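Note on ligand handling. Small-molecule inputs were canonicalized before submission; formal charges were left as drawn, and no protonation-state enumeration was performed. Where a ligand contained multiple stereocentres, the stereochemistry in the source SMILES was retained. For zinc ion, this procedure yielded the string shown in the input block below.
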Amino acid sequence: MTETSINGWPASKDEREIHVRSFAIPGTVRHVRVAEDAAPILLWVASKFHRAVANLDKEPLAVWGYKYRPALQGGGALSDHASGTAIDLRSDRFPVGTAHMTLKQRMYVRRILKRCEGLVIWGGDYKSAGSKDQMHFAIAPGVKAHDILIWRVKYRIDPNGRPLP
Ligand SMILES: [Zn+2]
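Structure output:
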């Protein structure tokens, strides 16, 4: 297992090798395939996004997780989707290329990101022309599984992205 995605997480054509599996997104009927260690924070982001930004239940084929493929920008480097550490939320409403969100939606995304304390990056912050990707959330480069564990203990989130009682 020598390949890594842009953020440094192990990537593979074989999803079992990198512990990718299907998780329910809390509060929705949707499932998404992500790496176990990244799941708590990505699922938490998706559930908040569903409540505050756009309804994930509305569009059946608009939520994406693991996919072995190169990054859209990155000279052949593997996408964070190839390590199961990225999710796309409402690809129908927020397709890559330009900004589609309202000011209010962006404000909620900022709020979600703030709670992630730098562990998650947002494609809406991509600067190069045509690369804006507001549906895309990924584990930030340099973040380790241990950082996500500390985060979820701090905010009392379970391994499936649900708040602990
Ligand atoms: Zn994406």
